[in-house]
Amino acid sequence: MSGTEPTPQPLARRPWALPSAVASELDPDHARRRGTRRTVRDWLVDFACFLTAVLIGMIGADAVGDNPHVSAGYAELDQVIGALACAAVWLRRRWPVGLAIAMVPVSVASDTAGGAAVIALFTLAVHRPFRYVAWIGGISAAAVPLTYWLRPDSEMPYGISIAFGVLLTTAVLGWGMFVRSRRQLLLSLRDRAVRAENEAALRAEQAQRLAREAIAREMHDVLAHRLTLLSVHAGALEFRPDAPRAEIVRAAGVIRESSHEALQDLRQVIGVLRGGDADASGRPQPTLTALDTLVAESRAAGMKVVLDNHVADPAAVPAAVGRTAYRIAQEALTNARKHAPGTEVTVVVSGAPGEGLTLSVRNPAPVGDVPKVPGSGQGLIGLTERASLAGGRLGHGVPPEGGFHLEAWLPWAP
Question: Which residues are in the Signal transduction histidine kinase subgroup 3 dimerisation and phosphoacceptor domain (predicted)?
């Protein structure tokens, strides 16, 4: 396992299905990616707004021409002002606030500019926060009575004209605020989706890292036991070339058997790495029922092991607890074989449902010189983590009489 974890890469944010300059104002990241250029959609929307302003302006121009309260010269001036107002609609994206403010006196002076004023108010509500909409919209609504006082409608009473004008202003502003709120909601939903994807990617990466750590611990626990046998017996053959033939044959057999088992265990770990399934290799995971086999293998390798098992039915122990206890015993026997060869190792197992499972491994101090066997001390650290993950605890140390003592307690639910 490497000490440096890979840095999670942020997921790319999805662009809008129909990119718009409004997205640039509501989403700063969108503005940085696309700049402030108008898209094809923006041009189409702007052209539609211009046509709408022109059509409404033409209706207003006809109404002014037929209004007996308006002189012919003023009707021509009204149309000129309306044409200029319609042309100003193309500036609505760049200066929405300025255009809306300018349209207030223009709409009072010209009925033909009514369409441009409506578009300006709608753009203001879409592009700017509520405080701008409230002030400018309120001024526009307050100017409606002045408009109909200067040019009374020939077909509607004064009061109804004012009510209609105020209602139209309110409806346009409400529609614009609805469009803005909807776009903000879409941005919020998109951001939530991106955050959810990022969190899912982080969880997947964390799960992968935890799986790698578990596989690394399993590889250490499994292969260390086999390779220690190889190291000890190969070292014995190296330092005792004049050993009796029977002892050499027995050591060679242990080396061959340990090599075969190590290869099988390595295939099992590789199968987990490839398939992601612990049972893909076909070999069952050892539990507490396999403790007798582990002790027999250690005795066949020349160790003196005393097993004192007080658990009446090892098969009744939960699989996860039994597997953890087996790995702890395996690592403890491996360490005893490496650091205290020739000593008698005592393994005591006891427990019951509701009380927990206790595993104790003890060996005295070795006599004479002990061959130096390399070790990093990571095995005991891994056992402590394994016991903690199972909800138990593990302690180890040197007792007053010497040697080494390891004891673990694992929960056993009733």
Answer: 212-276
d(CA 261, CA 278): 17
Collapsed DSSP state (helix, strand, coil) of residue 366? coil
Q: Is the pTM of this model over 0.70?
A: no
Q: 168 and 160 in contact (C-beta within 8 Å)?
A: no
CB 343 within 8 A of CB 403: yes
- Alpha-carbon radius of gyration of the chain: 42
Whether 349 contacts 408, CB under 8 Å: no
Question: Could you give the maximum distance between any two Cα atoms of the chain, in Å?
Answer: 133
Q: Which helix (H) or strand (E) holds 82?
A: helix 72-88
Q: Is 346 helix (H, G, I), strand (E, B) or coil?
A: strand
Lateral strand order in the sheet of 304-309: 304-309, 344-352, 356-363, 404-410, 393-397
- Distance between CA atoms of 334 and 338, rounded to whole angstroms? 6
* Alpha-carbon span 328 to 289, nearest angstrom: 14
Strand, helix or coil for residue 105: helix
The one-letter amino acid code at 83 reads A
Q: What is the C-alpha separation between 213 and 385, in angstroms, rounded?
A: 11
Task: Write the pLDDT tens digit of every residue in 55-108.
Answer: 887 887 777 766 666 666 777 787 888 888 888 888 888 888 888 888 888 888
Structural domains of the chain ordered from first start: 21-155 (no CATH), 286-414 (3.30.565.10)
Q: How far apart, in whole angstroms, are the C-alpha atoms of residue 413 and residue 355?
A: 8
Residue 269 has pLDDT above 80, yes or no: no
Q: What SS3 class is residue 357? A: strand
CB atoms within 10 A of CB 190: 15
Distance of CA 114 to CAs 61, 79, 102, 108, Å?
Answer: 10, 11, 12, 9
Extract the tokens encoding 267.
Answer: 């295939």
Residue 394, beta-bridge partner list: 408
- Contact 281/271 with Cβ under 8 angstroms? yes
